[in-house]
Amino acid sequence: MVATDPQPAINAPQTRSAIFLVLQVRPGQAHAAQVRQACSQVDALVRAVGARDVDGKLECVVGFGSDVWNRLFGEARPRELHPFREFRAGPRFAPATPGDLLFHISAERTDLCFELAAQLMARLVGSVTPEDEVHGFRYFDDRDLTGFVDGTENPAGEESIEATIVGQEDPPFAGG
Q1: Whether pTM exceeds 0.90
Q2: Could you identify which of 15, 38, 73, 81 might form a hypothetical disulfide with 106, taking C-beta atoms 3.0 to 4.6 angstroms apart as the criterion?
């Protein structure tokens, strides 16, 4: 996987289940190499696990933190990559938390998410330290746990692509 390979799953429709894994990469080049190897296998793992239910809509988006970027990919960095800063918007609060890798796994079935997470962690064992693991699911009336029914707060169509995909403002990473 090249750091700028597009991840079409970033704009995939919401599903019924999700797992969010936040991991810290241990120091040392051997650990960085193991992480790069595991991340290069994500697409194949999604296809292999997802083949168990072709209607399961299994997807995985991988995010890399600012602090680990150079260890994994070298000096060339996306222009707007920076350490996550906490922010508040009304009653909502997003704290700045540690983490080098984010795996956002989603599917229509929890077991597909769980299996992919287990296979990813098996490939990363010894090279990462888990920081956080969150399981998400649709609740009554297909609401998420914040009370939203359908994700209407999220941009859709071309707006979602504009909001998520790097454009010509950062040419070396365009499409990522």
Answers
A1: no
A2: 15
